[in-house]
From TrEMBL:
The organism's place on the tree of life at top rank: Bacteria
Pfam families xrefs: DUF3105
Organism per entry: Plantactinospora soyae
Name of the protein: DUF3105 domain-containing protein
InterPro entries, per database record: DUF3105
Secretion signal span: none
Keywords: Membrane, Transmembrane, Transmembrane helix
Biased composition (Low complexity): 57-85, 93-151
Length: 360
């Protein structure tokens, strides 16, 4: 054998064969009579693992009683959509055929009629005198002979100067002046009568009478006017009393005229309700008593009675006010009643009815 050739560094080395796969490890020898242990169980589920849902039993299986489609279902039936023999009315003979002469122009149709569109004789011509001013139209009427001429109205006509019944200008002016003077005189007369009647009315009713002599105990002696209810007789600082303590029951004061004296304590309670109490001395004349009674009868919050202890002929009392007079015709009596009746009440709205009517 010759010497081997040295390796050529320019030539690549032949590829080496891959190593053989490793031999499987020999199974452990089983001893006879020793049981083989089962493989280990499934691994425990990992945290957060959700098992997939299990299909519902019977899902996807045909339902009991389900019938498959019949053969030829959905196929057109023989003769479907074809006209049936005798269906629908038969067309009448000649129906849909053109009628003789239909659509043909009639003789003379559309031809102009003789004279149509031709101007008529005289049509559109102005009539004689049309648009011409008529004689006298729009002209002012001619004045009547003598109208507006000097000397009109003619002598002797109504309204002419010198004709009876025609007032002259100075006469008309005089009548106007007389009417104005007469109206002014009538107005002055009415004014005088009105003033005179008012003065008479006020004087006859005592309106505006002087009440400066009224004693005002509300200012001079208010301590004597305490409105207390008592059960024992009261010694009043004024006679007759004009206010102060009094009994529980009031004297009836709805225009009552008493011919005998009444209890002071009951009468003072009536003054508290707003009554005016007129008293008179037993020496007053019957005519004077009647004159006072005329002012009382039929009047609410009014009463009249004699009072033997008073030292004046007539005395008028309201709560806190008193006036002494000598004569029943004194105009101050009516003025006192108008001024203090009900307005002097310290219990406004209290009644005068329902009280006692007994006398001493």
């Amino acid at each position: 054998m010759g010497n081997p050739e040295p390796p050529n560094p320019q030539q690549p080395a032949p590829p080496s064969e891959p190593p053989p796969p490793p031999a499987p490890a020999p199974a452990p020898a089983q001893e006879s009579g020793t049981p083989v242990s089962p493989p280990p169980g499934p691994l425990p589920p990992q945290p957060g693992y959700v098992p997939p849902p299990q299909p519902t039993p019977g899902y996807g299986q045909p339902h009991p009683g389900y019938a498959p489609p019949q053969q030829d279902y959905g196929q057109p039936q023989p003769g479907y959509g074809q006209p049936q023999p005798g269906y629908g009315p038969a067309p009448q003979p000649g129906y849909g055929q053109p009628q003789p002469g239909y659509g043909q122009p009639q003789p003379g149709y559309g031809q102009p009629q003789p004279g149509y569109g031709q101007p008529q004789q005289g049509y559109g011509q102005p009539q004689p005198g049309y648009g011409q001013p008529q004689q006298g139209y729009g002209q002012p009427p001619a004045p009547s002979p003598g109208y507006g001429q000097p000397g009109y109205p003619y002598p002797g006509a109504p309204g002419a100067p010198g004709v009876p019944g025609t007032p002259s200008v100075p006469a008309r002016r005089t009548g106007l002046i007389i009417g104005i003077v007469a109206g002014a005189a009538a107005l002055l007369l009415l004014l005088v009568c009105g003033i005179g009647g008012l003065v008479w009315y006020r004087s006859s009713n005592g309106a505006g009478a002087d009440l400066s002599d009224v004693v005002n105990y509300r200012e001079s002696n208010p301590g004597a006017l305490t409105p207390d209810h008592v059960q024992e007789p009261v010694s009043y600082p004024m006679i007759p009393p004009a206010g102060g303590p009094h009994f529980q029951q009031w004297q009836n004061c709805n225009g009552d005229v008493y011919t005998a004296p009444i209890v002071d304590e009951n009468a003072v309670h009536s003054l508290e309700h707003g009554a005016v109490w007129i008293t008179y001395s037993p020496g007053l004349t019957a005519a004077g008593v009647e004159r006072l009674a005329e002012r009382v009868r039929g009047q609410s919050h009014m009463m009249l009675s004699p009072h033997p202890a008073q030292n004046t002929p007539i005395s008028l009392q309201a709560w806190g006010y008193q006036l002494a007079v000598e004569d029943a015709d004194d105009e101050r009596i009516d003025e006192f009643i108008r001024t203090y009746r009900e307005t002097a009440a310290i219990e406004p709205g209290a009644p005068c009815g329902g009280g006692i009517t007994t006398t001493q």
